[in-house]
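Example record used in the benchmark description.
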Amino acid sequence: MEIILYIFVIIFFLLLVGLAHTFVKDFKEIVLGLVSMCQPRLFRPITWVTSPIWFVGYGLEKAFGWNIIEKYDGCDGLEKYPSTGNLKLDFSNGDKIILTQASKRKAESVIRVFLEFYDGDLKFENFKISGIQNLKIDCPNQISFFDFSILTQHFCNEEIKSWGIFKSSRVTYYSYSNKKTFHNIVGQTTDRQKFSIYTLDDLNKDQYLRLNQNLEV
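Model output (structure tokens):
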């Protein structure tokens, strides 16, 4: 009986040693991962509390040049992606569609949460949801470029396989929010022009796509 107990103690000790070794070896990656998880996101209330940790990391990186904040195409999520030109939109004249693999229940929840933050006349009944596994959400025509971009970002935060689609006689594009960025949405037009949308811009005034063929889309 004592031998079995000793064996269990030895196994437990070896497991602790292995865990400690892994923690020490990957300590930097673990800390950086935790900092990235604290990145502020509008529709994730828990990050409202944890975001100071992310901002501390951001400040240390800017002050000392440390590589703390996870990057995407050289951007830390607070800065604009570079652009080589602008493609103007006729946003009021096109169809605004969200495609997502989220469940219908999740999609309805996303829209309702979005409307809680929305300051306008849109109602839940204005959004038409169709499909089963791959949902199509027809957004009301009066939704603004800014609100459509924020809604696209919100869906992408909840279900990575989500896209914002805009179709008009002048331009058609798809867009999505990469998980490694916060204020930038990326996408591509049907004629293969890559672009970004910076959600801190005045998108109600500046209704255009920021072109950059070097973006990873």
